[in-house]
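User: Reviewer 2 asked us to show a designed sequence for the structure in our supplementary figure. I'm pasting the structure tokens here. Could you produce the per-position amino acids so we can include them in the response letter?
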């Protein structure tokens, strides 16, 4: 029985991270990393940036679960998520999200660069707070405005490799930003 509850808890925490969404965000960040430098990027930097951006994305997803728990309980598509089901407490989810976010920022600041950490933090706040708290509830255009957080990873990846916001990185951001609303 103890192993079963541990597995359920692990699965619940994994679900909070929205792994399919995070995988897509990390993939686009990796594309930005690969396009930023000629040849292969430094492997350690590539790995640290991937982990940092992935952890920040997972943190934002968990915060989104926390904020949306009441709405999730009322929707058929989301009512079986860990918080509406009572499988995890709000405090547990916030603690988990906080740990992921702090680890992400520590990795990005100390192993990648400060600019990437700042831009990643802005993206986390953009999705977890601005989009989730305000835009989703205020305007049907939420995905248009909130799409910036989802379009940021290639820019973050580029910045992680170069330490700068290059015009080509902004173009990658713009491509995903414009593509997001119709999809």
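Assistant: Here is a per-position design you can include in the supplement:
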């Amino acid at each position: 029985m103890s192993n079963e509850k541990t597995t359920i808890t692990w699965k619940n925490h994994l679900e909070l991270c929205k792994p399919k969404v995070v995988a897509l965000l990390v993939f686009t960040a990796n594309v930005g990393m690969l396009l930023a430098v000629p040849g292969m990027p430094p492997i350690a930097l590539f790995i640290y940036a991937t982990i940092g951006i992935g952890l920040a994305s997972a943190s934002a997803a968990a915060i989104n679960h926390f904020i949306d728990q009441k709405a999730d309980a009322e929707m058929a598509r989301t009512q079986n998520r860990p918080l509406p089901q009572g499988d995890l407490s709000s405090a547990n989810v916030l603690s988990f999200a906080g740990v992921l976010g702090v680890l992400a920022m520590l990795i990005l600041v100390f192993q990648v660069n400060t600019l990437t950490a700042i831009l990643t933090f802005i993206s986390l706040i953009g999705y977890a707070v601005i989009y989730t708290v305000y835009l989703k509830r205020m305007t049907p255009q939420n995905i248009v405005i909130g799409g910036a957080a989802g379009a940021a990873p290639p820019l973050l990846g580029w910045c992680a490799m170069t330490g700068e916001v290059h015009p080509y990185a902004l173009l990658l951001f713009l491509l995903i930003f414009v593509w997001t609303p119709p999809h």
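For the response letter, you might also mention the following. The domain at 2-179 is CATH 1.10.357.140 (Tetracycline Repressor; domain 2). DSSP finds nine helices and no strands in the chain.
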